[in-house]
């Protein structure tokens, strides 16, 4: 039976095993809005799957050179798994075992199991007794519902901030908005997902409400998990359009155009529901 634990954040470059082959897990989020082309290639590699918590019948996998720093191994693996989910390397409905993933990470099954338990709390996976964790199968309706809830929380806050935050503060966020455009240009969903999260986190931080920021980030992450059959998977053009709205919003706020900013904010979340 899997044991629960709480996750944290960190960095690392582990790999995820596949049913037909073995695929590397993409490079992890950097905790900032800067991304490189090399990282994009690592994040958006081939897909794969692993089954079964019992590993006595599985072919031994050569252990890669450990790249995870032990001081924050659980957090780094949690980031790696989140990235693999968004990149489509952990597939809805598939079961993944902690021991096999641990072999590929070069760590024991314990930190992998703990990270998976955190993902279970976030609604990304569910526990399968004596086997591992199954990625939740979700449809477009759930995605639309999440977008609606996010709008109910974030839109009023952003509109209030548009009236109260000085123009120079909005101008300071311009690099974060531009970084989201560069991430979108990569065409990699995992790279853009992190940049998008960073942008919204930076905007909501201006409200000075940590509880609000925490709830909004949880909803944001849930909206990034994969859908059944890869449906409604956004391509590069969709990511670019979304990121362009970030920059346009900051331009309107910096120029002191609240009406335009309001239209952009409402349109941004309306698009997420479609």
Structural description of this entry:
The chain has 274 residues and is mainly alpha-helical. The strands form two sheets. A three-stranded antiparallel beta sheet has the order 3-5-4. A two-stranded antiparallel ribbon has the order 1-2. β4 and β5 form a beta hairpin. α2 crosses α8 and α7 runs antiparallel to α8. The radius of gyration is 19 Å and the shape is elongated. The N terminus is likely disordered.
Any idea what the radius of gyration is? 19 Å
**Strand-residue proportion:** 5-15%
Number of strands: 5
Number of helices: 11
Strand order of the main beta sheet, please? 3-5-4
Helix/strand-derived category reads mainly alpha
Helix percent reads 55-70%
Strand and helix order: EEHHEHHEEHHHHHHH
Query: Averaging pLDDT over every residue, what do you get?
Result: 78
* Biggest sheet architecture: 3 strands, antiparallel
Can you summarize this structure?
By secondary structure, this protein is mostly helical. The chain is 56% helix and 6% strand. It is built from eleven helices and five strands, in the order E-E-H-H-E-H-H-E-E-H-H-H-H-H-H-H.
Give the topology.
Layout: E1 15-17, E2 22-24, H1 37-43, H2 73-87, E3 95-96, H3 98-105, H4 109-121, E4 125-128, E5 132-135, H5 140-164, H6 167-172, H7 174-185, H8 189-205, H9 210-224, H10 236-254, H11 258-273
Antiparallel strand pairs: 1-2, 3-5, 4-5
Quick tags:
3-stranded antiparallel sheet; 274 residues; two-stranded antiparallel sheet; 6% strand
């Amino acid at each position: 039976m899997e044991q629960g634990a709480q996750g944290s954040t960190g960095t690392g470059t582990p790999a995820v095993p596949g049913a037909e082959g073995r695929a590397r897990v993409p490079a992890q989020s950097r905790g900032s809005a800067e991304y490189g082309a090399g990282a994009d290639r690592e994040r958006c590699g081939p897909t794969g799957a692993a089954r079964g918590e019992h590993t006595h019948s599985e072919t031994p996998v050569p252990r890669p050179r450990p790249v995870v720093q032990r001081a924050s191994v659980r957090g780094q693996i949690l980031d790696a798994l989140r990235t693999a989910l968004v990149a489509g390397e952990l597939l809805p409905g598939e079961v993944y075992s902690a021991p096999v993933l641990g072999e590929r990470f070069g760590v024991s099954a314990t930190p992998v199991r703990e990270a998976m338990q955190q993902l279970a709390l976030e609604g990304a996976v569910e526990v399968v007794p004596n086997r591992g964790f199954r990625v939740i199968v979700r449809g477009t309706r759930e995605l639309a519902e999440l977008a609606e809830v996010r709008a109910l929380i974030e839109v009023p806050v952003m509109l209030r901030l548009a009236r109260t935050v000085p123009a120079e503060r909005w101008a300071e966020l311009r690099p974060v908005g531009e970084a989201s455009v560069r991430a979108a240009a990569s065409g990699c969903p995992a790279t853009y997902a992190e940049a998008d999260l960073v942008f919204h986190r930076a905007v909501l931080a201006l409200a000075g409400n940590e509880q609000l920021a925490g709830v909004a980030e949880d909803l944001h992450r849930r909206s990034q998990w994969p859908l059944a059959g890869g449906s409604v998977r956004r391509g590069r053009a969709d990511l670019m359009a979304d990121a362009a709205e970030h920059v346009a919003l900051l331009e309107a706020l910096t120029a002191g155009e609240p009406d335009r900013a309001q239209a952009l904010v409402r349109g941004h979340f309306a698009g997420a529901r479609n």
